[in-house]
Design goal:
The chain has 668 residues and is α/β, with parallel strands linked by helices. Helix content is 48%, strand content 14%.
């Protein structure tokens, strides 16, 4: 606190940074009067805590106990030497004297042992893992006194335990065991007596000291650069969380203050849910953890790592992150994931914060998308809590883009002339209607009561608007040269199986760790596979498969011979409209090409089947003719067999053609 510590008589000062001065003052009977210190502060909390920490009854009890103990030995946890009051601990001192007597007896044996050995003098030596109280004689000596047992030796000396020394060591060991038992009993009795007499007073003082220690830590944290005092809004205002240039406290500490700051704004009457997309390892989980930690730190009274923070008082922070199973209960990772989600849906209120990280990833894609979409809709429309929802599913991100005229994707491409791809403004949507439409469950004339927002506290009701926005963690994408990109549109059927590193390339992603509006183009899992050191052949094979799958799902991106992300907007929505118009014009052409492929495949398949039927008829005729020649001479039989083998080979070739044609039709 930066205030002097005043002695009880009000005249002396104790410098807490000088240990010798403080010890001298304590030895002189001076005690720090925290009650006087409490009169020099204005905080009611500090006044109360300082007064409790300086409780005279607790101070007197502590001084009494300290007078019985050797403080330095007690600090080092040396139980055998920490008792100094002979009147209080007589048993300890009795056995201490026994130990001293045993050690003295062993020392008095040395002159007698030297005389028996015929040497001027002897001394004890101790060797680790060999023993104590050993005497040494030259290794060249042939005769040793009777009863001396050899313990160990070197080329120069041999070490022995004489019989008298063994008896003295046994007596010393017994005394030391009794002393250890006596100190244990004395310490336990001291604790019991102290607890019975002074527990209540000291418990209050210790609790106050602990709180002062915690407040001191929070005060030191508040002095950290880039920390601010959070501002709480009144309880009658809608729930909100507004963070300006916030950071994750632990990450910022680990990076020496170089963590990338991010701003976030959630309001009950505005954007309640932020759907966060972006590449793997792009910082999505850090962002939502950061928001949760900011709330917790603010509500325990701490300053927070941000330039500004305004928030409501939250009744809970609910988290669904990570992947763990519970083998003992027979619950899989996905079951644990949905169990956490179930608890959140049952417990969260409109005064809660919910953070969910990749809900639905533990099952098939369609089920995962459906669960994630329905859960997000329920949180926004029914629980009405503030939500941070991380996902890699484009369908979930599409909820926030639905109905918006600006559907531009996030990210920055290295091929863009401007060097950046400005993101779209946060798009909003009626989440309940969009979720139902995504599941295909809304039909003409159906009851749409489920799409209505529950009545608010003011009694009004209506369709939910403007409560979901989509963001992404920004990045820079370095695409390969056009000549190196694998083009699924020009590859023959099955070419993916023969794809090599020469015709497939994986984009390199530079993470910017900055939150921006709009959805990300992709998750770029192959980039993380490269970073993780996955075999190059595996990564290239995966890139080829991904390119073909993308061509099937998004044929519009295959028409230009590349699946690279389109260049971003330059700020004008007119360019986006032009791209949408061009894409809509390409749809009939793409559909016509697909239809042509289908017709070609079906024609090929019918042609192959016709040849198969003809070959089967010819083979049947040859078999009938061959059966009549079996009874002929050897040359006739061999000719019949060769004809049948040729027919079988021809059938096998036709079978392979049929399989190829079926595969082509399946791909189309």
């Amino acid at each position: 606190l930066g205030l002097p510590l005043v002695t009880s008589n009000g005249t002396g000062r104790i410098d807490s940074s000088n240990t010798e001065t403080a010890a001298a003052a304590a030895a002189a009977g001076a005690t720090m009067d925290l009650c006087i210190l409490a009169t020099q502060v204005t905080s009611r909390l500090l006044v109360t805590l300082l007064a409790a920490a300086g409780n005279p009854a607790a101070v007197a009890a502590a001084n009494e106990v300290l007078s019985w103990l050797n403080v330095q030995a007690a600090t080092k946890n040396e139980h055998l030497t920490m008792f100094k009051s002979k009147e209080r601990f007589p048993q300890v001192f009795d056995w201490t004297e026994e130990v001293s007597a045993a050690e003295l007896h062993l020392q008095n044996l040395l002159p007698k042992l030297a005389a028996v050995a015929g040497v001027p003098s002897l001394s004890y030596v101790s060797i680790q893992n060999q023993g104590n109280y050993m005497v040494e004689l030259p290794a060249s000596r042939m005769e040793v006194p009777q009863g001396w047992g050899k313990v160990c030796g070197t080329k120069q000396v041999c070490r022995y335990h004489p019989l008298e020394v063994k008896e003295g060591m046994a007596a010393l060991a017994r005394a030391q065991e009794h002393l250890a038992a006596a100190t244990t009993v004395a310490w336990q009795q001291l604790l019991a007596d102290f607890s019975a007499q002074h527990h209540a007073a000291c418990r209050e003082a210790v609790s106050a000291v602990a709180q002062l220690d915690a407040l001191l830590s929070l005060a030191q944290l508040a002095a950290t650069p880039d920390y601010c005092r959070p501002q709480f809004v009144e309880d009658d205002q809608p729930a909100q969380l507004v963070i300006s240039d916030g950071k994750h406290p632990m990450l910022d500490l680990a990076l020496d203050g170089r963590a990338v700051p991010n701003s976030l704004e959630l309001r009950w009457d505005g954007v309640r849910a932020a759907v966060i997309t972006g590449p793997n390892m792009g910082g999505k989980s850090v962002l939502i953890r950061q928001a949760a930690l900011t709330i917790i730190m603010a509500q325990l009274g701490s300053w927070v790592p941000a330039t500004a923070c305004q928030l409501s008082v939250f009744d809970g922070v609910f988290s669904r992150m990570g992947a763990t199973d519970c083998l003992l209960q027979g619950r899989s990772t996905f079951a644990e994931e949905l169990g956490d989600a179930s608890h959140i849906l049952a417990s969260a209120t409109n005064r809660s914060l919910v953070i969910m990280d990749e809900l639905g990833r533990g099952t098939a894609t369609h089920d995962g998308v459906a669960i994630a979409t329905a859960t997000l809709g329920y949180l926004v429309t029914h629980k009405q809590c503030l939500t941070l929802f991380v996902t890699h599913y484009p369908e979930v991100a599409a909820l926030a883009r639905h109905g918006s005229s600006d559907n531009s994707s996030g990210g920055t491409s290295s091929s863009d002339d401007s060097g950046a791809r400005p993101a779209a403004a946060p798009a909003t949507v009626d989440t309940a209607n969009a979720a139902a439409a995504a599941a295909g469950s809304i039909s003409a004339g159906a009851d749409t009561a489920a799409t209505k927002e529950p009545p608010s506290s003011s009694g009004s009701s209506g369709v939910l608007h403007h409560h979901v926005a989509v963001y992404h963690m920004s990045y820079v994408r370095h695409d390969p040269a056009p000549s190196e990109i694998f083009d699924p549109n020009t590859a023959a059927v099955g070419a993916v199986k023969n794809a090599t590193t020469q015709n497939v390339s994986v984009p390199v992603i530079t993470f910017l760790y900055k939150l921006a509006a709009g959805a990300a183009d992709e998750s770029f899992g192959l980039n993380v596979a490269q970073m993780a050191g996955l075999a190059s052949s595996v990564v290239q094979r995966a890139a080829a498969i991904a390119a073909q799958i993308k061509c099937r799902v998004e044929p519009s991106k295959c028409q230009n011979g590349s699946d690279a992300a389109p260049p971003g907007l330059t700020g004008s929505q007119q360019q986006q409209k032009e791209r949408d118009k061009q894409q809509s014009q390409q749809v009939p052409q793409q559909q016509g090409q697909v239809q042509q492929h289908r017709q070609e495949c079906c024609a090929e398949l019918l042609h192959v089947l016709k040849e198969v039927l003809q070959e089967l008829q010819a083979t049947a005729d040859q078999a009938a003719t061959g059966s009549t020649q079996v009874s002929g001479d050897s040359a006739q039989r061999q000719g019949a067999y060769r004809s049948m083998e040729a027919a079988a080979s021809r059938l096998q070739q036709l079978q392979q053609r049929a399989v190829t044609a079926l595969t082509a039709c399946g791909d189309v």
